[in-house]
Each structure stands twice: as C-alpha cells, then as structure tokens.
Task: structure prediction
Amino acid sequence: MTDDDLLKKWLNNKLTDAEKKAFSKREDYAIDQNIIENAKCFKASEVSKIDDFETFKANYQVRSSANRLKWLRPALRIAAVLVIGLAIYFTMFMNESVVEQRTLLAEKTTISLPDLSKVTLNADSEITYNKDSWHEERQIDLKGEAYFKVAKGKTFDVITEKGTITVVGTEFNVKARHSFFEVVCYEGVVKVKSDTIARQLLAGETFKILNGKFSQNRAEETFPQWITNRSSFKSVPLHEVFEELKRQYNIKVTYENTDASRLFTGGFVHGNLENALLAITQPMNLTFEISSSNQVLIHDNTD
Result:
C-alpha cells in the first residue's frame, strides 16, 4: 500500500489496528495529527465544504516543505560563514606572495626584484609580481612606464594591457598609457607582441603604437631621459606631452584655442615648472599662465 493510500484511509477513519500502529510511527504523523486537531477549531460556513484528499495532500506537502526548511536554514547559514571565512583566508594569506609597487604623481622609485633585476618606475605607475614563483617564472605586470635592467637568467616577461615584452637579459623601457604604447631597447634583444603585431628589437630600436598606428624607429638616446629628471619626446602629439607634464608636476593643465594634436619633438625638465612650460610652449608658439600652484592655462600665442 502506498503512503497516499494509507493517508487517505486514515483521513476516512478506515485503518485497521495494524495499519493504525504503523501509521502512528511515521515521521510526519505529528504534522498530520496537528492538521486534524487545528481543523476541529474551525466552524465551517454554510457554503464551505470539507477539502477532498487532493487538496489536503497539497496543503500537507507545503507544511512538510516548511518543516524541512527549519533545519535547512541553519545549515545554509553555516555554509555561508564557511565560504566567507575561506575567502578571507585566501585573500589575507594566499596573496602574501604577490608584491605590488606603485608611484604617485611627481614620484619615481627604483625596485630590486628577487633575481636582482632593477625596475625604475616613472610617476603614476605600478608593477605587480609573485615573489614566491619568481625564480621559476619571471613575470611582471606593468601599468604606466618603467625602465628595466634585467639580470640574465630565464625568460623575463613584462605584461601590459597594450602588449607583452619578452627578454632574457637586457635593458629596455616600456611606456603603456591609454592610447600610447612604446618599447625602447637599449641593450640586448627584446621581443614585443601587441595584438597582431610582433617584432624583435635590437639595441637602439623602438616599437611604438600611437592612436592605433604602429611605427618602428631608432632611439636617439642610450637610456630613457626621465630617469635623470627630463622627459623627452619625438613626434608626439601635444596632448601626450601635457599628460606627462601633469604626471611629473601633479598639476592641472587646460588649454584654449590650441591644437593639441600637433606633433612635438623636444623635452622638459622635472624640477622647475616654469622652465618646463617654456620648453614646451615656445617651440609651438604657445603661451602659458600659472594661476595657482597646481593649475596651468595654455593658449595660442597669436591671441
């Protein structure tokens, strides 16, 4: 006899003595009995009728589900606490091997890596690497600009949003900012891959993608000028020059009636704002006003 048949006979008071004894030992007997007892407290109206078996069965299943949820909710709470605890553990302890170094505006710093390679970070830049796996995989993530002196050893990868640079032991500079991606090899050999463009650079060669356009040229310097507190540019739009000026001096630069897409070749010093502005504006027939310690207005000199 199925459970439904047994329940139906119980509701109709047709159980045998043996069936009554078996029915009273069911786990849900107390719930069934409670439903019947509660039903006695209500007086049916003239238009109401006693629920048939199928209606009772539906109500019974709803109450049984609610009863199961009573013990399920605490179990779910315990599981949630365990998940949160594990997340905190992995965040606090498993990430101890990840090293992050960053610079603020108008700040530079040099970092020694676990293999004694050196990284000099330009202003507003950041590197991330795993110190525990470094000797098995020399890989570093870069945002911004950095100059690398790589100790000889296994392959050394610099990962940026713009592309990947792969070397063994060499000196090179990487600049990855917004629409500007440039790699300059100063010593050894550098492999650069950005999207579908892949090149191998020898000492003195450059790889540049500016506003989606690729070019490869020769470098005029034997090291990046910014590490000696001077930013230099070759055929770079003025707005990129202004962005670097803002990073090096932590200032706000605005310009009026100025074509900021014009190409600029030259440089500026990092230690004197007025001299830096003169070096940029005079060759481009521009003028400037310093309205406060951190605000500069640049406009066309013909106004």
